[in-house]
Design goal:
It is built from 11 helices and 14 strands. The protein is α/β, with parallel strands linked by helices and 327 residues long. It is globular. The model is unreliable at 1-34 (pLDDT under 50).
Length: 327
């Protein structure tokens, strides 16, 4: 039998007919159904465990970007084909933002802070979702920053200068600090490239003497070890979170949307400052995740932005976690 829209509708009508009375009695009225509708989703947080450490993914919303020009070393038709195969729009890409909160025996560590009130109108959800997850910014012990792009640091300080995490120690990669806080480098940069330097000063300037810089290969906070992942920025950092037999490879911005950059690890995003180095880093990190079967977390993958990496052809495949109501 050939399945067509006509046969589907006909079979639906036939099977539904004997249940018309009871089904109608149990249906929801239009007015009550409308009360449950809205323009926003439920709060965007998701908890999971890595050994004894509770990890909470906190979503900060998303921002659309034109697909054209998003990948610097691939022709637009090839990028559109990859998007088509992933059932994504072929004109825009939704750049999502997901930070992490680690609860290690009551000690709270935030990894990257979102856009704050400085991002696109469809971002800035981080704090509402953070509070919905039961957290209080005043109780955060440590904020760990992976790199100095605005979507990772602007949540530290609002536009009016308010410090969002008043009691937290702030930890940043030493190589990032050396690059972005260098006045000579900022003055030598083209005018259009100075925004990143100025943004870093806006966020870190008032607390510069208290910011703690960390090196690569060091345990930043208990269970969290920094991993050099340069290319996206000079001091871009990934992490390995370990507890018992549990491990989570936190990739930060090593890869953007998995359907583009995990499947095609040699593509270069427009955000990567050193494209060749970023590609080498991406392949190394994805190969490590696949070989060791470690769970991974992304900053820009679709929420909740965690899963596993499998080798596939010349690239890799992202396998999202199965959602669970249990933590």
């Amino acid at each position: 039998m050939t399945i067509t829209r006509r046969t589907v509708l006909a079979s639906t009508a036939f099977t539904a007919a004997p249940l018309a009375g009871p089904a109608l009695a149990q249906s929801t009225s239009p007015s009550s159904a409308a009360q449950g509708s809205g323009t926003r989703q439920a709060p965007g947080f998701y908890r999971y465990k890595v050994g004894d450490i509770e990890v909470t993914a906190i979503n900060d919303g998303s921002a659309p970007r034109p697909l054209e020009g998003f990948i610097r070393n691939a022709e637009l038709p090839a990028v559109q084909q990859a998007a088509r195969e992933a059932f994504l729009p072929q004109d825009t890409i939704q750049n999502t933002f997901t930070g992490l909160v680690l609860n290690n025996g009551g000690r709270l560590t935030v990894i990257d802070t979102g856009n704050g009130d400085s991002g696109a109108p469809t971002t800035g959800r981080w704090m509402a979702n953070f509070r919905a997850a039961g957290f209080d910014p005043a109780q955060v012990n440590t904020v760990v920053i992976s790199h100095f792009h605005g979507d990772h640091i602007n949540g530290l300080r609002l536009k009016d200068g308010t410090a969002v995490f008043p009691n937290a120690e702030i930890m940043v990669p030493a190589a990032e600090w050396a690059f972005w806080m260098d006045d000579a480098r900022m003055n030598q940069a083209p005018e259009g490239a100075r925004g990143g330097f100025q943004g870093a000063r806006r966020v870190f300037g008032p607390i510069a003497k208290d910011v703690k810089q960390y090196e690569m290969g060091k345990e930043v906070v208990p269970g969290l070890t920094s991993i050099a992942a340069p290319g996206h920025t000079p001091g871009h950092t990934a992490y390995m979170l370990s507890s018992g037999s549990g491990r989570l490879l936190i990739l930060s911005d090593t890869a953007n949307h998995p359907d583009l950059f995990v499947r095609n690890p040699d593509w270069s995003a427009i955000f990567d400052m050193d494209a060749d180095q970023a590609r080498a880093t991406r392949r190394r990190m994805l190969d490590t995740a696949a070989s060791e079967r470690a769970q991974v977390a992304f900053y820009h993958a679709p929420f909740p932005a965690t899963g596993h990496i499998a080798k596939e052809g010349n690239g890799f495949r992202f396998v999202p976690v199965q959602w669970s109501s249990a933590v």
